[in-house]
Amino acid sequence: MATQDAKQVTVYTTPTCPYCHQVKDYLKQKGVEFSEKNVAADLEARNAMVQKSGQLGVPVIEVDGQTIVGFNRAKLEELLG
Amino acid sequence: MADKTHYDLIVLGGGPAGMTAVVYGARKQMDMLVISDDIGGQTMWSAGIENYLGFPFITGPELVQKFEEHVRQFNVPHEYTRASNLSRTGDRFSVQTHDGRTFTARAVIVATGKSPRMLGVPGEKELIGRGVTYCATCDGPVFAGHDVAIIGGGNSGLDAVVQMMKICPKVYIIERSPELRADAVVVRKAQEADNVEILTGTKVTEIIGEDFVDGIMIDSVDGGSPRRLDVKGVFIEIGLSPNTDFADGVVRLNPHGEIPVDCAARTGIPGLYAAGDVTDVPEKQIIIAAGDGAKAALGAYAYLVRLPVAEDWGQMIT
């Protein structure tokens, strides 16, 4: 574990989205560090999310440049390794 | 563990019914697997729950977190996918999943709940997540500054209107009935807002857009007065339908697509139980789903204890 570089994880969220909270809880429980971008307040982040994911929905999770739309645990576990 | 594909019991669904079944099954030390791509089911969508015993007030996500913590201590294997088909050969069930795998079990509990109902118009499926959304609470803020249409004039539709009219220049509400069906309080809020246009007796005929939604086509319910609305977001709030499409080959569904069960959560098919909102239980409540999940697990346990283990099961699952 120690030899592996930490993956760059970003979660695009809205404050009201329940699945966004679930994703964040999941990552915290796994001990994965991540940054959060609230697309309700941050227009730049919203545009970036739409561009990267082609989606107008949250949560979008970005792991080392690869995006996952929605809280897809199977895919997230795969990307987190 | 990853190679194990046969269990005594498979629970389909991760809402209150499925998770309670897991707790009861785990305490009986049953050999079991959960298949569900989510945890919490519809409970996740609830902003406030005030009728689950022991919690005078709790939000849906908070209650789900407590459910999850409770379930996690039993270390029951969980596959994060969905059933695409359920079949039965002799006294053995076979579950195919959306990711192309097959699991078998001697008993199955279907607790797959309900999902938002789709409109069923051209363009809808293609534009899901690209302007079409079924969760206004989740995605609403993403559409701030854009015109949106909310489909469905019941309470969940009007809740979405009240949420969106504060952040959108124009909000349309489209309802097939001659009147909005929501509570008078929220209807009045919508009627009094300058930027809300209420279109009753109206249906959606198409959702338009290439990469993202550009608009919708509407018409009067009788037809003959088509009109285009230029909107970037379409919020569909027209109720729920049971997640049973994978099960109709094994069990006869009622006209609503629900699985009929008796008071012991039995479906009439030996070894097949169902619990929660996916069934024809008269009230769709978290506490009722949880209770039904307990009945289903205890019923499945009693069934499995009595059922002789077929000696040829190894051949039957291939």
Describe this structure in words.
The complex is a heterodimer of chains A (81) and B (318). Chain A is globular, with a radius of gyration of 12 Å. Chain A has helices spanning 18-30, 43-53, 73-80; strands at 9-13, 35-38, 60-63, 66-69. The mean pLDDT of chain A is 90. Chain A has one domain (9-80): Glutaredoxin (3-Layer(aba) Sandwich), CATH 3.40.30.10. In chain A, strand 3 (60-63) and strand 4 (66-69) form a beta hairpin. By secondary structure, chain A is α+β, with helices and mostly antiparallel strands. By secondary structure, chain B is α/β, with parallel strands linked by helices. Chain B folds into two domains: 6-116 and 240-316, FAD/NAD(P)-binding domain, CATH 3.50.50; 125-236, FAD/NAD(P)-binding domain (3-Layer(bba) Sandwich), CATH 3.50.50. Chain B is 23% helix and 26% strand. In chain B, helix 1 (16-27) runs parallel beside helix 2 (60-72) and helix 4 runs parallel beside helix 5. The radius of gyration of chain B is 22 Å and the shape is elongated. The interface between A and B is medium-sized, with 25 and 31 residues.
Overview in brief:
The complex is a heterodimer of chains A (81) and B (318). With 81 residues, chain A is α+β, with helices and mostly antiparallel strands. Chain A is 40% helix and 21% strand.
SSE map:
The complex is a heterodimer of chains A (81) and B (318).
Chain A: E1 9-13, H1 18-30, E2 35-38, H2 43-53, E3 60-63, E4 66-69, H3 73-80
Parallel strand pairs in A: 1-2
Antiparallel strand pairs in A: 1-3, 3-4
Chain B: E1 6-12, H1 16-27, E2 32-35, H2 60-72, E3 78-79, E4 83-89, E5 92-97, E6 102-110, E7 114-116, E8 132-133, H3 136-139, E9 148-151, H4 155-164, E10 171-175, H5 184-192, E11 196-200, E12 202-209, E13 213-220, E14 227-229, E15 233-236, E16 240-242, E17 272-274, H6 286-306, H7 313-316
Parallel strand pairs in B: 1-2, 1-6, 2-3, 6-17, 8-15, 9-10, 9-15, 10-11
Antiparallel strand pairs in B: 4-5, 5-6, 7-16, 12-13, 13-14
Helix pairs in contact in B: 1-2, 1-6, 4-5
